[in-house]
Amino acid sequence: MSKIIFAGTPDFAAVHLKALIDAGIIPCAVYTQPDRPAGRGHKLTPSPVKELALLHNIEVLTPENFKNKEDVDKFLSFNADLAIVVAYGVILPDSIVHGPKLGCINVHGSLLPAYRGAAPIQRALLDGNDRTGVTIMKIVKELDAGDMLIKAEIPISADDTSGSLFDKLASLGAKTLVDNLPDILAEKITAKKQDPSLATYAKKITKEEARLNFNDSAENCNLKIRGLNPWPIANASIDNIVFKIFKAKVLNDNQGKEPGTIISVDKKGISVACAEGAVCLEIIQAPGKGRVNAADFARSRSDIFSVGKKFE
């Protein structure tokens, strides 16, 4: 039976590890990032992958990196046939990449060569794509540039957020990995090189991107609201109060109002003019408060949300 090492850190990776375990494919070792501070108390917290591996009595290793010879030697001592890497977040040196007999493979959340990099799922949504998927590829030194083994794709629905898309792609990636792993191990799949001329880069999401710009089109504002949910959440300010915006709907008519102007407040929500069209804000959150229906909040705070007022 083949010996496999699994390396991953967040929930997205844990879904893949669970699929392997459920299929009876138990890694000989699991690598994940060290425990990190989390929550209000900043308590050291294990990664989702570590929690799952320990639950199944799988050996877990958490090096910060592989700069120490001892960590490299330990990895090589498993004499693995293959290493599966999913959202690990640690740069792998050549000694690790070429350590297993069949090298290392990665499950990436895009249809490569599009959206190489840190935030492929969010960027595909922010760019208004109607389809996305996963690619299983061989790991090479250049970021996400390895030869492709398998691709699987799904549509992006009109109400998808990056959160819902993460869940869909985690399930798709896990199933694609488990279904094709026997052929990967048997070297029955012919790898296909990526066309570098088609490569795009999905840069990391930052908090600074979260501010809505109503001078943009309503469609792009809504894509930002969807693409930055569940983090960092799109926001806009009025009366010097910053409101997070979790859900909105695109409207075709801005009624000739300046971008940022509230054009109606009704049971559907708070409609705000954009450069093209308008967005109806449906779920919002005030500082220090929970998420609320925008229409209900606006009725209780008509001093803030009244027709003709402008977002800053």
In whole angstroms, the N-to-C terminal distance is 62 Å
**How much β-strand is present in the residues?**
25-35%
Number of helices: 8
**Helix content, binned percent:** 25-40%
Question: Mean pLDDT, nearest integer?
Answer: 97
Largest sheet: 7 strands, mixed
Tell me the CATH topology of the largest domain: Rossmann fold
CATH architecture term of the largest domain: 3-Layer(aba) Sandwich
What is the CATH C-level name of the largest domain? Alpha Beta
- Main sheet strand line-up: 5-2-1-6-7-9-10
Radius of gyration: 23 Å
Based on secondary structure, the structural category is: alpha/beta
Uncertain runs with pLDDT below 50, 5 residues or more?
Answer: none
CATH homologous superfamily classification of the largest domain? Formyl transferase, N-terminal domain
**How many DSSP E strands?**
17
Helix-strand pattern: EHEEEHEHEHEEHEEHEHEEEEEEH
Give the CA-based shape. Answer: elongated
Total domain modules: 2
Please describe what this structure looks like:
- The chain has 312 residues and is α/β, with parallel strands linked by helices.
- It is 26% helix and 27% strand.
- The strands form 4 sheets. The chain has a 7-stranded mixed beta sheet.
- The mean pLDDT is 97.
Notable traits:
312 residues; alpha/beta; Rossmann fold; Methionyl-tRNA Fmet Formyltransferase, Chain A, domain 2; 2 domains; seven-stranded mixed sheet; six-stranded antiparallel sheet; 8 helices; 17 strands; 26% helix; Formyl_transf_N
